[in-house]
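fold-stage: in
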Amino acid sequence: MVNRNKANKAKGDKYERDILARCLEFGFTQARRTRPGRMEDMGDIHLTHDGRHILQTKDAATPVWREWLTGLARQKYAAQAATAALVVKRRGSGANPPIHLAVMHLDDYLALLRLTEAYRERAQIDGDVA
């Protein structure tokens, strides 16, 4: 059992590093992993230095959606984040590579869209974006 737990932890740590690298590639230069084992779990990755947008990574063969989303809500609250999402690895088969899903509560998704639209509207007023 101990070996399986170590293997699962190593797999989870690698997935966190992979997702962090992807976030950095997409321009989230402040993205960082949180410290593992903290009593107040605040997600695996914070996309901004203030922790307003967090990710919780999951690399598991069988999704446990309700449990994961309940945990995500707790982490969002603990981090006082504006948005929170699960990043779930769905394994590929044969020549098909794995896919990575971002899953979030609808309210968080709508808040994220609202932020995006507010930014766009502000940029149009300022003449920065067409």
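fold-stage: in (second)
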Amino acid sequence: MNAHNIQSPTLAVEIPGRSRSEGAADQTLAMAAQLGFFPNDGLKVHINEKQIEAGSQIELILNDNVVATHTVEAGQVNSPIGLSLSADHLVTGIHKLKYQVKQIDQLPFQGSEFAVLFVKAKPLSHLGFTADSNSSLLVNIEVQLQSQPLGKAISTGSEVLHQVESSGGLVFSPDYRHLHFSLNREILTLDMEQQTVITKYQVWGYPVAGGTSPDGRYVYASAPSNTHTWVIDTLAQTITKGYELGSEDASNIAVSADGRLLYVASNEYGTPNNSFLNIIDSATQSLVKKIEIGRVAVSLALSPDNSHVYVCCFEAQEGRAGVYAIALQTDRVTRIPVELYPLGLAFDPAKRLLYVSHTLGNTITVIDTTNNAIRGSFTVSQSPTHLTLSNDGKWLYVLRNATGLIDVFDTQHQTLTRTIDTGKQSLRDITTRKDNGDIWAAYYVQKE
């Protein structure tokens, strides 16, 4: 490969026609090259995907159509694989070039990066050269490499796990056509069918998407360093500030089933750092009600029947740590005295149970939501964080803090059945698609 490659760790695109124009004896080619146009010799694509087994098939995909395939031989494992894109595909326009790998007895996965091709194809006569050279078509190609937001899908036989690079807050649109998630100081929208990010919204601070309106038009988010909520209009593709909390930061947010109310946990700045549940009218972004709870609220979840909001509070002094259950009809607040530092929340609607992780411990507490009493607890690996349940309630997925490991527990026997190694370094969130049961996990890559 030469200096005309556009490359990343896993993907490189070579433009052979550009190399052919360098020092060409043909003065016409040399002059066209000065205008940025070169012979249309197609493209050479080099894929350096590690840990691919022999017999795997690599497909080169242009604009969602497979244009080249290669079966990996034993001697090519862990080596760059070359494929060619023929010249007839390089027509004027913007094209997306990506690849996917099909391994034996596993789900296909797409490469972590793709190329956007900006192509202009012109006959020599259109570049000001003599008419007798009209038959020669030259191309100007600009290549931009971009990262795919999705990691490799993992199939264990019991579940399908998808991964997306995100700092947290995974929220599906009601029709599951889009996934909204946070990455550093942005909220992104992923087209689930195309598996590409279609919009990005910049936010001051580090936002967390919390929910959508029933029709999917509005996305609501919070950011712990912000004193207000955020409202995204996906139709107008705008983001605006929502309700202003004054001297408190917006820790977490949830949306009622009918979309009329937002539930926002907030923390006072400074001492004593009291926490509140703010109930906000989503249409007017005005305060309906404010309820004091514990201190240092870190997570929040709305019960499946919309009767209670549960808020985890860290504050260990004065006996105020715990999970706070707020009855939305009566405003009654019940502190459930679980172990210190509760964080992850996962509901089992059928059994009326709530699972709570303790991030600085090694237990999961089980709460009976019919009376908000502790049903029991069980031991897990050190420092569990976020949780999700399979749709049938059989499996509880538990993220291990600052690792790429997911422990899967049998909820009936409360025993560890398997551990999924995602190959990532830091998992930040996990959720379950309600329509098909697939598991989605957020992983974060620390940028230097």
